[in-house]
Design brief:
Strand content: 15-25%
Strand order of the largest sheet: 9-7-8-10
Radius of gyration: 16 Å
Number of strands: 10
Bound molecules: iron/sulfur cluster
Largest sheet: 4 strands, mixed
Shape: globular
Distance between the termini: 28 Å
Number of domains: 2
Order of helices and strands: HEHEEEEEHEEHHEEH
Number of helices: 6
């Protein structure tokens, strides 16, 4: 989904977004019903903030490494959770708005001009994000202060376009 600005090789080399300290545990990807059905024989799950996530296991440094992370990157390939396909972008709830943000953690993407990121979000991601939010509104995480906002749409627009 992000190939134009972030390659598989960039991600396989970095792996930062697949490890979570306790303070970052809100960031763990949500495992939707379809994916859970596909991988339930291989992975165990937990519930965090009322959502299904991979079982949380902290190591001695207090880091939870995603169990789907292999030597060459994510073992789930194109079946990975939507949160992961979208990262370092995030759709977040801010009042009546869904805001599209970018995580300051991803060095590669944050080196690009902000104008390029805004254009990429609006042209390449927005329709997919809207479709996802319309299908799974409860899976949208709350806005976290400090995440730069690149674009937004209102929840009421979404329900209006669904009913029209
Ligand atoms: S599912 Fe894959 S991409 Fe997502 S956090 Fe786990 S290893 Fe990383």
């Amino acid at each position: 989904m992000l190939n134009r600005i972030l390659t598989e090789a960039d991600c396989a080399e970095c792996r930062l977004c697949c490890g979570f300290y306790e303070s970052e545990i809100w960031e763990v990807p949500i495992i939707g019903d379809e994916l859970a059905a596909l991988i339930s024989g291989q992975y165990a799950f937990d519930i965090v903030n009322n959502q299904r996530v991979f079982k949380i296991n902290y190591d001695e440094k207090g880091l939870h490494l995603c169990p789907a992370l292999g030597k060459n990157g994510c073992r789930l390939g194109m079946s990975r959770p939507f949160d992961c396909k979208l990262w370092p972008f995030r759709a977040m709830k801010l009042g009546e708005l869904i805001v599209i943000t970018v995580s300051p953690l991803c060095k590669t993407v944050n080196e690009l001009p902000l104008s390029e990121l805004v254009e990429f979000v609006n042209l390449e991601l927005m329709d997919k994000i809207k479709a996802r939010v319309a299908k799974y509104p409860a899976q949208v995480k709350d806005y976290v202060k400090g995440y730069p906002i690149l674009s937004s749409f209102s929840l009421s627009d979404l329900s209006a376009s669904r009913t029209s």
